[in-house]
Each structure stands twice: as C-alpha cells, then as structure tokens.
Design brief:
Length: 108
C-alpha cells in the first residue's frame, strides 16, 4: 500500500467511526466500531473491518452495520473531498477473535 492509500484509509476510518458514533444505533447491548480500513490502489473500493462487542453479537452487529452502509456512503462525502467516494465493503475484524482464542488458551 502506498503512502497515499494509507493516508486515505486512515481518513476513511476516522470518518466512518465519526458517522457511526453520531448517527448509528447499534443493536441493544452491542458496541460496534471500525478498527481498520484498507483501500484499493485506484481508491474506488475500501474494506472496513468491524469490531463487535460482545462476541456473541457478531452476526447481528455486522448485519446492522451493513444495513447502515448507505448512510455511511453518503456521510463520507461530508467528511472527505474526493473525486469519487469509495464503495465500502464490511468485514469482521478477526484479530479480536484470534486474540480472544489465545487469551482463553492461556487461561487454561
């Protein structure tokens, strides 16, 4: 990833989190945030990696944020001035799951 794409990805991550904090109503008892964003070299597609707490709400949280995607797409234009707004794809941040598995294994 080039320095430019890294900078755009970081700005997108900040913008998406601000939109989520401001406008998104997470399912009851769930905390959802975007931990990382990657973007294609042509800046047309981005992947937002979502952290969902608690882990037993992963499916519900990801489904809710995907339904909210259109609002995020529109909101990004208010935060960033870009020729075209990247299409956001949503994925679970599996790093949290791996860390939890390691932590659980160490406790046993």
């Amino acid at each position: 990833m080039s320095k430019r794409t890294e900078q755009v990805a970081a700005l997108l991550c900040t913008a998406i989190n601000e939109i989520i904090i401001k406008d998104f109503e997470a399912p009851k008892g769930t905390l959802i945030s975007v931990s990382m964003v990657t973007i294609s070299a042509d800046l047309k597609n981005a992947t937002a990696y979502v952290s969902v707490i608690p882990q037993d709400k992963l499916g519900t949280g990801l489904e809710a944020i995907r339904k909210f995607s259109g609002h995020v797409q529109k909101g990004i234009g208010k935060y960033l001035t870009m020729h075209t707004t990247p299409k956001i794809n949503w994925e679970l941040d599996e790093r949290d799951l791996k860390y939890s598995a390691i932590d659980e294994a160490l406790r046993q």
